[in-house]
Amino acid sequence: MEPHKFLTGKHLTLVYASQGFCSGILPLGLASISAYLKYYGGFADISVLDANCQDIYKDFVPTDVVGITSVTQDIENATRFARYVKAQADIPVILGGVHISTLRQLPEPFDIGVIGEGEVTMLELMSLPDFTPCNLRKVRGICFRDGGEVVFTEPRELIEDLDTIPLPDRELFNLAYYLKPRNLIPYYTGRTLTMLSSRGCPFNCRFCSTKVHWKKFRAFSAERVVAEMELLAIKYKVEIIHIFDDLFIADKKRLQAIGKLVQKAELPRKVKFMCLVCSDMVDDTVMSILRDMNVVATGAGMESGSDRMLRYLKRDTTTVQMNRNLIDLSTRYGIPVMGSFMIGNPGETMRDLQYTHKFMLDYRDNKYFTPLTYISTTFPGTEFWDYAMKRNIPVDDYKRIVMDIPSDINALKDAPLLTDIPLMDFYDIAWKCQEETLYKQRVFGNQFGQDERGPSGGAERSLGGE
């Protein structure tokens, strides 16, 4: 697609309304929306409100259009800010991101919802003379209010060639804040930025909303990926690049091409990398490429120490032995792996949880493996969501979501848990697992930044990208 000049004169304010995921991670989805509108639409009048580093309520100024992105666990914050905007002026407010795309319900007081990828849809919306129902019906991939009814238009096709998307507009954000040295990856502190080299995942785990949102795995070309890496290293002088893909190694041929180009650009001398991997795709070839790229840590969704639970959660794609093989490879190549585990799954027994705890204990003295434990969380569009709805578990009461292991059992009493295990027993085994993470931190100094949640299986990302 060639750039076009629509020159509508609308001012768009993009909003990241929550610090709920990680205050050190620049909202790449909004950066991609801004870049797309500027390149293909000639829209120069775009600003951002970013709750990571400003008071979005204090700094809000009435504008022509407001676009807010949200994942499920942050939808309460997004809705609260939308109400505030509406109280200030009669401004159209658009909701984008994973939550609206997977749940397909438009909460009050939003006027329009962007379902799926946001770049092309937002370009069409911002090119409309006004947001009348007649005009909105022509835009694919949205829902909108028409009187008392929410209308859904035809689905929008995916962007097949991701290279047509311009590099994210990071200049829109407060780079003085995001480039402060911080500890976004284990072991290392430095000037850190995130990037996405792909969208989606080739797998279809029962708990994960990635497949629902992105539909299928698509990737930027190796050339485009390394060009962005060079930009971050040279223009922004980053020391660490956190590749935020759901699965960076999904396409082995592309990974090999990226590895060669990274070497040619001499990037391993300039930056360190972290990425997400999976145990059923990692082998010596993959680990050699990652080592030569200067990947200094990886994350993997190991999920459980029980083969029975892995067969259920990951649809027979992963075994406990595969997870052990990944730890062995990580140890041999000297690249620490952070293994995330989900506890409190449907049908999980105490024996399954004891297997998970024992798996962690087996590697207690291995400095190249750290377990991270999370309470299984239900996201719209997943099989977990259907399971919860059939059993009247209030997973749609988003403010009650608990993902991290709390320090007080009372925090779990009202949480929408999926487990049938008695609460006291569940809390006890949860803290035995959590203690293994704390032990590694004490002994090996494996410290995350204050807000980093690590590679949590099924964690939602947030209008067009993250």
Topology of this protein?
Layout: E1 12-16, H1 28-41, E2 46-50, H2 56-59, E3 65-69, H3 75-88, E4 93-96, H4 98-103, E5 112-114, H5 119-127, H6 133-136, E6 142-146, E7 149-152, H7 175-178, E8 182-185, E9 188-190, E10 192-195, E11 198-199, H8 210-214, E12 218-219, H9 222-234, E13 240-243, H10 252-264, E14 272-277, H11 284-293, E15 295-303, H12 307-313, H13 320-333, E16 337-343, H14 350-362, E17 369-375, H15 383-390, H16 410-413, H17 423-444
Parallel strand pairs: 1-2, 1-3, 3-4, 4-5, 10-13, 13-14, 14-15, 15-16, 16-17
Antiparallel strand pairs: 5-6, 6-7, 8-9, 11-12
Give structural notes.
The chain has two domains: 12-152, 3-Layer(aba) Sandwich (Rossmann fold), CATH 3.40.50; 179-444, pyruvate-formate lyase- activating enzyme (Alpha-Beta Horseshoe), CATH 3.80.30. It is built from 17 helices and 17 strands. The protein has helices at 28-41, 56-59, 75-88, 98-103, 119-127, 133-136, 175-178, 210-214, 222-234, 252-264, 284-293, 307-313, 320-333, 350-362, 383-390, 410-413, 423-444; strands at 12-16, 46-50, 65-69, 93-96, 112-114, 142-146, 149-152, 182-185, 188-190, 192-195, 198-199, 218-219, 240-243, 272-277, 295-303, 337-343, 369-375. The protein has a seven-stranded mixed sheet with strand order 2-1-3-4-5-6-7, with helices on both faces.
